[in-house]
Write a structure and sequence with these properties.
There is one protein chain. This protein is about 50% helix and about 0% strand. The protein contains 3 helices and no strands.
């Protein structure tokens, strides 16, 4: 999914986080200026409702009893 958007895995995770109801911003750490720029670019990534559903299901499947 990240590759389809020409994004990094981290950018995809940040985009998913920002798409959650009630979330208005995400605090993301960075070890260097390049990571900070990559993280900021995630704000432009828009995941489709189908992509969000795939990610939601993967999270439920891999975190049973938590989510």
């Amino acid at each position: 999914m990240a590759a389809a958007h020409k994004a990094t895995l981290a950018q995809t995770v940040i985009a998913w986080t920002l798409a959650q109801p009630g979330i208005t911003f995400a605090l993301c750490g960075a070890r260097n200026p390049q990571q900070a720029l990559e993280n900021a670019a995630a704000g432009e990534l828009r995941l489709t409702s189908e992509e969000l559903a795939v990610l939601d299901e993967a999270i439920r499947r891999h975190t049973p009893g938590i989510v």
